[in-house]
Amino acid sequence: MNVCFIMYPWETLTPASDSTLRLIHESALRGHQVAITTAANLTIRDSVTMSFSRLLVKQAKVPKTPETFYKKAAFKEQMLPLAGFDVIFMRANPPLDNLVLNFLDSIKDEVFIVNDVEGLRKANNKLYTAAMDDAKGSIIPRTFVSKNKEYLKRVIEHEAGDKMIMKPLNGFGGSGVIVLERGARSNVNSLLDFYITGKGGESNYVILQEYVEGADEGDIRVMMLNGEPIGAMRRKPAEGDARSNVHAGGTVHKHTLTPDEMKVCRKIGPKLVKDGLYFVGLDLIGGKLIEVNVLSPGGIVNINRLNKAKLQVKVLDWVEDMVQDRMWMAERRNAFKSAVSNA
Ligand SMILES: Nc1ncnc2c1ncn2[C@@H]1O[C@H](COP(=O)(O)OP(=O)(O)O)[C@@H](O)[C@H]1O
Ligand SMILES: [Mg+2]
Question: Which of 167, 205, 209, 294 maximizes ligand 1 atoms within 8 Å of its Cβ, making it the mutation to test the pocket?
Fold first, then answer.
């Protein structure tokens, strides 16, 4: 297969903990043609979508560990047509650049993209999760989204719990996630002003969410592949912090999915697949869905270590199957076309 990774700059990744490196390494171990590029290197030449890529030079013996592989990797710079790849892994860091999606729009019918462009566009912010509940309120915690300050103040006043979570619609990595305590709500006016009013004078949406009990014990990160959980871990917040994100100081612990957690995964799995969100990371607390991470979800390395697993093997196995199916479909169609033409 020809595999392309649209990602952050190679030099900036941390080999010991980087999920994308595991996917690249696994692709190289399987002898695939691997290229990496960044969003800034996408280009159109004479109406063809290309990328200034770094093509991995094939080695007779690919190093066994991702760390040594990273050290020894050599690249050839080359301008390559994106439609020449069998699969593109979209592994750029959030926030998502809409222009990248426009570049990918031009080739999405020709190349299998993980995740699908339409899915990335749909699930680009926390509205995707906020609107995901069923009629029984069993999937996500009670959630309110608005940029109307008076309305948000009323929500804070009238919600029954002692605590609420406030977070920006477009946040990631735990940034801007705070707990509002009932006794200390004198700051609410100022906080809402701060969250709603953006830098350039534009206004932002704010999420208010029921604080899910048990969150101090951490959240559960589940890696989902094609709608099925393939691995999970618990992330516990640092002392004095409400956020479990590893980037915010959270620590990781072994976890086996409970029946409630399995139930949520099973409920939303088919929707994820329908939206082309094949490889995503879910955040769950108390069996409720907190977030669907669709852009370059992390966690492979920690889950591998905790569960003695190799999630990258499952991902590549599945991608190879998908690409094979697509190839057979194309061949079959060509054969049918010839049969009709020659009839
Ligand atoms: N409703 C909630 N109840 C309790 N804790 C929450 C809630 N929402 C978020 N958190 C905590 O904050 C973290 C980050 O929130 P999340 O919605 O996943 O945003 P981000 O995109 O920044 O990761 C969660 O992993 C969890 O630890
Ligand atoms: Mg999260």
Answer: 167
The amino acid at residue 189 is N
What CATH number does the domain containing 259 carry?
Answer: 3.30.470.20
Q: Is residue 129 part of a domain?
A: no
Domain with 30, as residue range(s), is: 2-117
Q: Is the pLDDT assigned to residue 136 strictly greater than 80?
A: yes
Rg of the chain in Å (alpha carbons): 22
- Looking at all shown ligands, the one closest to residue 159's CA atom is 1
Helix (H, G, I), strand (E, B) or coil at 273: helix
- Has residue 42 been placed in a domain? yes
37 & 93 share domain: yes
Distance, in Å, from the CA atom of 217 to the CA atom of 250, rounded to the nearest integer, reads: 11
32 C-alpha to ligand 1 centroid (Å): 37
Residue 190 lies in a domain: yes
DSSP β-bridge partners for residue 146: 206
pTM of the model: 0.95
Residues 113 and 25 in one domain: yes
Q: What is the pLDDT of residues 10-57, one digit of tens each?
A: 999 999 999 999 999 999 999 999 999 999 999 999 999 999 999 999
Contact 245, 174 (CB under 8 A): yes
Task: Please measure the distance between the N-terminal and C-terminal CA atoms of the chain and give it in whole angstroms.
Answer: 34
Please count the structural domains in the chain. Answer: 3
pLDDT at 137: 83
pLDDT value of position 168: 94
For a ligand 1 pocket test, name from 96, 219, 296 the mutation site with the most ligand atoms within 8 angstroms of its C-beta.
219
Around ion ligand 2, residues with a beta carbon closer than 5 Å are 283, 291
The answer to whether residues 154 and 206 belong to one domain is: yes
CB of 316 closer than 6 angstroms to any ligand 1 atom: no
Q: Are 63 and 48 in contact (CB under 8 A)?
A: no
Is residue 15 located within the same domain as residue 109?
yes
Instruction: Give yes or no for residue 168 CB within 6 A of ligand 1.
Output: no
